[in-house]
Write a structure and sequence with these properties.
cobalt; cobalamin; 4-stranded antiparallel beta sheet; globular; FAD; cytoplasm; about 240 residues; 8 helices; alpha+beta; single chain
């Protein structure tokens, strides 16, 4: 069952520059405190959805051109929401729940922890402070970051698709590719991400097969309120 769902998702999302990676809710819940658990049985089938560098040209720009007058919030969020809603229609006999990376619970906690989901699904390796043996940071707060084996840091985690009626007790958990395998490189990665994230160097911590175009880099480097202008949208639309 998981294979059929995965194939249908990949045929729908792949041409848009989006990836779908399967996992069991239990894998995710097992590594988190109860406050962050997803409220589904452990064997529930879920997919974490990533955007790759090609999403900008394959999905976002066509969406903006077509839906120009209907864009009232962040264009990327609205584009992903639009396409994942359409994917739900491909499963008319299944309940499909969608969670987006920007959604919050009433407690102001995120609905799901995106990087943990990507790691347990084997989509990207979530490098954290605990992955460094000789910690050089003392009392500093150090945030972790996911690295994709193909795109490095040139990708984003956009949402989850959950299939509450599909239980997959025999699904085997993939191991994420440990592509930043040396102590020195892991320290360099976490240093760059935590203290120099604006320059984006952490994204190229490994040799990548594809990265954001110059146009896309400019878009994401622009303050959100000014991005509408880059896409040819008026401020009134916003």
């Amino acid at each position: 069952m998981e294979r059929r769902v995965a194939e249908r998702l990949r045929s729908a999302l792949g041409p848009l520059g989006l990836e779908a990676h399967a996992f069991k809710v239990g894998w995710y819940n097992a590594v988190l405190q109860p406050a962050f658990h997803l409220p589904y049985p452990d064997d529930t089938l879920a997919f974490v959805i990533l955007s790759t560098p090609s999403m900008f040209d394959k999905a976002l720009k066509p969406f903006v051109n077509k839906e120009r007058l209907k864009i009232i919030r962040d264009p990327v969020d609205q584009c992903v929401s639009h396409h994942l809603s359409r994917v739900k229609e491909k499963f008319p006999d299944q309940r499909v729940d969608v969670m987006f990376d920007y959604e919050m619970l009433p407690s102001r906690k995120p609905k799901f922890l995106a990087q943990t989901a990507a790691h347990v699904a084997g989509a990207a390796y979530y490098y954290q402070r605990k992955d460094v043996k000789l910690d050089p940071w003392g009392k500093k707060k150090i945030f972790g970051v996911c690295i994709h084996p193909k795109y490095g840091g040139w990708f984003a985690i956009r949402g989850l698709l959950l299939f509450p009626d599909i239980q997959v007790p025999f699904l085997e958990q993939p191991t994420p590719v440990d592509c930043v395998s040396t102590e020195e490189k892991r320290i360099e990665l976490l240093e760059q991400f935590n203290f120099h994230w604006q320059d984006g160097r952490y994204r190229d911590i490994i040799e990548v097969k594809e990265r954001y175009s110059e146009e896309q880099k400019a878009y994401f480097a622009t303050p959100p309120a000014e991005r509408f202008r880059l896409l040819g949208l008026s401020q009134e639309t916003q």
